[in-house]
Every structure is written in structure tokens, then in C-alpha cells.
Amino acid sequence: MVEILVLLTSVFAGFMGSLLGIGGGMIIIPVLTLGLGVDIRYAIAASLVSIVATSSGAAASFLKDHLTNLRLAVVLEVGTVLGAATGFLIAKKINAQALYLLFGSFLAYTAISMFRKKGDSRARVNHPWSERLHLGGKFTERDGTVIHYGVEKVPLGLVFMYFAGILSAVLGIGSGIFKVMAMDGAMKLPMKVSSATSNFMIGVTATASAGAYLLSGDVQPEIACPVAIGIIVGSYFGAKLMPKMPAATIRKIFVVVLGIVSIQMLYKGIRS
User: Fold this and answer.
1) I need a surface site. Which of 23, 28, 159, 161 has the fewest CB within 10 A?
2) C-alpha to C-alpha distance for 97 and 230, rounded to whole angstroms
3) What is the percent of the chain with per-residue pLDDT over 90, rounded to a whole number?
4) Is the per-residue pLDDT at 75 higher than 80?
5) Which percentage of the chain shows pLDDT scores above 70?
6) What per-residue string of b and e applies to 83-99 under the rule 16 or more CB within 10 Å gives b?
7) Separation between Cα atoms, residue 202 and residue 198, nearest integer Å
8) DSSP 8-state assignment for residue 184
């Protein structure tokens, strides 16, 4: 019975994770720890497996639809890796409570701003770095419309990714939601491209972390296996549905998730 519950939850987490580019950890971890009493170490390990599975399950579909911007993902991963390294070094010196409150407030503000925003993001001016590195791209909507896009404020995007890496290392949370927020809000990428590119990036980042947990023996097969199976199934359907959905609908769902995460972070900050 427990395995079936984990499997069904994982299907939902994989669906939402691939649809929004945020991974499934924010759904999997609370269910495993609060609902089923699983040790937090095993829950985090299973969450990392779920992120890798989400990314893998959706990658082929997004690449086929030209929604994943691989060049941009490689550039932005530099900021994420540097941030994660910094977070690892300062984790014991920084006040986690203050970070929860600060970024919880920031996410709440961003959710309100995105809710008020009309239409999809589209870069009006291509940043010089984007021109030199050929970071812009195009994809085709289901109605045959070809969408060309550029990339604004590449340095600001790297700064966002740097802090996303720090948060991931210090607070032990996934940074997919910050990646989507940075690409959509700061760099003015279309929402579908932001979600698909974030989905690829979090898979790359989580693979290294999942390997470390595997070597330490924290990946429990009886937990990780149903999680991985459910996630792959859910992410497949999420990846198939996402290109067909209007960008405005994806944005609305993302805003709701953003609001939930901001409340969770503020609650953790106040409680601790």
C-alpha cells in the first residue's frame, strides 16, 4: 500500500516537474517525511533520484520540440556550480533562518509580479553576450507558428544562477524554481523555453549529488525504485502536454507553485 501511494505521488510529481521545469523534490520530500515517516536523508536521496528521472523522462521530448536551449544551459550551469561550491563552504556560517525569510519574501513578491504580468516573455534586445555565444533560438508552436527569441541580461541571469546554487547547497532545496524565474523574468525567455531548459539543467546538477548519496548508502531501493518509476511515467506525460499548452496557462500554474513554495520558506524561517 505504501509503495502504491509513493508511486502515485511520484507520477504527479513527475508530471508537474517536467511541465514547469522544477523537478519533483518539493512534492516528494514532504510526502515521504511528513506522510510516511521516512528519514530525511533517505527522502532527499529519493528526491535527487526523482529530479534525475524527471529530467531524463522529459529531455528527449523537449529536445525534439527544440524547447531546450542547450547552449544557454551550459553557460548558466557555470553560475550554478560556482554558487553550489560557495554554499558548501559557507553552509555552517550562514543563518539559514534569515535566508528562508529573505527568499520566501522574494518569491512571494515575484509570484505577485508574475500574476499581474500579461502575455509571454520575449526579449526585445539581444544581449551582446547572447550575440557572441549564439544563445538565441527558435521553436515551433503546435499551430505552426515559428517563435524566434533572444536572450536579455545574461550577466544578471548568471547572478541569479549563482544564488540559486548557494540556496540549493545551504538549504538543501532544489533550485529549479529559481532557474525558471531567472530565465523568464530577467532574461525574457519564453515560458516554455525557460521550463524545458531548467528541466535539463536540474538533471545535470542532481546527477552528481545523487551519485554522492548512492555511494554513501542513502539511496534505499524500496523507496527510490517506485519514486523513479512514477516520476518517469509522470514526466513523460508532462513533457508531451507542455508544448501543447498555452504559455499563459503554464505561467499561471507556475505562479501557484511559486506561491506555495514562498509560504513554505516563510513558515520554515518563522518556525526555526
Assistant:
1) 159
2) 33
3) 2
4) yes
5) 91
6) bbebbeeeeeeeeeeeb
7) 6
8) I
Lowest mean pLDDT among 172-181, 191-200, 247-256: 172-181
Query: What pLDDT does residue 159 have?
Result: 92
- Paired strand residues for 147: 139
Summarize pLDDT for 84-111 with one digit per residue, the tens. 788 777 766 777 677 778 777 877 877 8
Q: How far apart are CA 185 and CA 200, in angstroms?
A: 19
Q: How far apart are the first and last CA of the chain?
A: 34
List the chain domain ranges.
2-271
| C-beta of residue 188 within 8 angstroms of C-beta of residue 122 | yes
The owner of cell 533562518 is: 97
Distance (Å, whole) CA 34 – CA 30: 5
Measured between alpha carbons, how far is 1 from 198 in angstroms, rounded to an integer?
33
Residue 205 CB contacts under 8 Å (≥ 6 apart), including other chains: 77, 80, 81, 84, 168, 175
User: Which grid coordinates belong to 93?
Assistant: 556560517
